[in-house]
User: Fold this.
Amino acid sequence: MGLRFKFNLVLSIVFLLGITLFGYVSYVMLQNNARDEVLRSAGVMMEAALSMRTYTVDHVAQKLQASQGEFLPESVPAFAATEAMNTLRKTYSDYVYKEAALNPTNPRDRAVEWETDLINDFRSNESHHELIGTRMTPSGMSLYLARPFQIKDPACLVCHSTPNQASDSMIKLYGPNNGFGWKLNEVIGAQIISVPMQLPIDNANRAFFTFMASLAGVFIALFIILNVMLSVLIVRPITRMSAAADRISVGQTDIPELPETGKDEVALLGRSFNRMRRSLEKAMRMIDQS
Assistant:
């Protein structure tokens, strides 16, 4: 096993360990950054929906009802927020906002199976104020951000306690079987934002592969440079010394001296070898003369 082979073996082992460690750390960091980016987008959408709800309550609902004297869906904060987000979906079709409920007034807000699980989690665990997770959709992996929707305003029960207390226009629009029986402080649904993760994950994977390819390129260049330096500075001089020592060992002393340029260890070894050869020649001449 030659010196070059041993050197390259150690260098390869160090590189494999290093690239495995750095690859794992960088992959985890990039994936976490992608998730954080998606989560920030979901948080911005959630706050936008809440802002729309607040604006509807403070500036729209009472004026609409006062001017028309009848129930208008546009005066409902959930309806306004959903419509605003549906407009956003015309540009970003994979971004979804839904105020899912177990017993909604508007049938389009009825919770599907996985949304029902989130709502039941909020209903059974009062300490849960936010749920974050991922789910697979036809368009790829999607991250969801969900917050409970709880009846805190007694005024909401005027339209949602029993059908006979609701306005005739609301009953005419949605029927007597939807959105009734709600109770104060009850979690009746959840506000759910779904944001696609595929693009950020693809970007993270692309960055990861670019980083790993760059790291491999740097190693290959370093591997070549170190091997050239090893060959020129160490292997080749030692090979010449070994060949000279072999010739001297069989009595061939008529060989040129080794180069002694430089002040490194190889040059010192070359000077020592030359002195040893000269001393050996003198000793052999003295033996011949005697």
